[in-house]
Amino acid sequence: MYKNFITVFAFILMNSAFAFAQNTPVVAPNLETILSEARKQSESYREAFRNLLAEETKTFEEYDKNGNVDEQTTVKSNFLVYQSGRDAKVTTELRNIIEVDGKPVPNSQKRSSEFLSELEKTTTLEKELRKIQSEGAKYDKTIEAFDLTLNQATVLDPKIRPYFDFKLIGTENYKGNEVYVIGYHQTKKSPYNRVNEKMSSEGETGFNFEINIPGALKNNEKFLRGKLWINAETFQLWREEQELTVQTPEPVILLSSFSEYQSSDYGLLVPKTISITIYELKKQKGDGRFVPVKDSTVNFDYSKFRQTNVEVKILDDV
C-alpha cells in the first residue's frame, strides 16, 4: 500500500462545477478587502495558536474496490502546538500517542518525558522537526499529514495568490454565522504547490504532496481549487474545502480535503475536524479516461482546545 504524504508548511469537495447554498444577497466589501482581511486573520491565527492543547483522534479508513470500508485504525493522542527553542518563529504539531484501536499505549506519559529529552539531543532544527513528525506518525496508515492545524487559507499568502483566481460567490448562513463564500482555482504552475518534488527549504510557505499518480499522468500539471467560508464580521475562517487535481481534458481529483473550525476561549476559531481523502485513478476501458476511486481517508477530530500551563520548548545550550 502506497503511503501518501501531505504537508502544508510555513503549509488540505468539489466537482468540476461548484454549487453553493446562498441567502438573499447583502452588501459586501469588495473581493480584495475580504481576501486581505482574511489573510490578516490567518496570520493572527498562527501567532495565537501556540501552546494550545487538545485531545486528537485520527481515524484511518481504507476502501475496497466496491467503495466499502475495508480496514479502520484509530489513533488517539494528546496534541500540543509546539514552539521550537531553536527558532522562535517555528511551530509544529507534537503528539503524545495514548491509545491505538482502543488499546492504551503502555507508559505513554513516561515515553513523552523521554521523547522531550531525546529532542534536546538533536543538533539541527531540521532533525528536531523530523523527529517530532516521525514520533507522531508511527501508527499512521496510508496517509501522513503534517502542520494542517497550524496553517489556514494558505492560498491567501501574497506570494501564492498570483497563481490563483478568486471569486466572491455570495453569502450564506454557516452555523448561525453570516459568511462570505469565496471560490478559488489555480491558473498556472506554481513553485509553491509541489507534487512529488523535493522541498526547496524548511519553513517556506506552500503545499507539498507526495501522492501516487499513474505513469501516464505524472508529467501533467497538478492544480488546486477550493472554497473558503469567511466570517462576514471578523473575517476569520470557518471552513475550507480543497482539491488537488491532475489536468487532463477534464480535471481529475487526486486528493480532497476540508478543514472545519470551532469557537474557542482565546478569540480565535480553532480546528474541529480536518479530513483528507486520497483517490486512486482508474483507467476506463473504451475511452481511456481516468476516473477517481476513493482509496483511503484520514479524519482528525479535536476536543475543545485549552492553553498549557507552561511553554514547551527545547533550548540550545548556548
Molecular structure report:
With 318 residues, the chain is mostly beta strands. The protein has one domain (4-304). Helices cover 14% and strands 43% of the residues. The protein contains three helices and 16 strands. It has helices spanning 31-48, 108-120, 125-136; strands spanning 4-9, 52-63, 69-83, 91-100, 103-104, 143-146, 164-174, 177-186, 193-195, 206-210, 222-231, 237-246, 252-262, 270-283, 290-302, 306-307. The strands form two sheets. Strands 2, 3, 4, 5, 7, 8, 11, 12, 13, 14, 15 and 16 form a twelve-stranded antiparallel β-sheet that branches. β14 (270-283) and β15 form a beta hairpin. The longest helix has 18 residues, at 31-48. It is globular and about 55 Å long.
What descriptive keywords fit this protein?
mainly beta; 14% helix; 43% strand; disordered C terminus
How would you describe the oligomerization state of the chains in this entry?
single chain
What class do helices, strands and sheet pairing give?
A: mainly beta
Order of helices and strands: EHEEEEHHEEEEEEEEEEE
Shape: globular
Low-confidence stretches: 8-25, 310-318
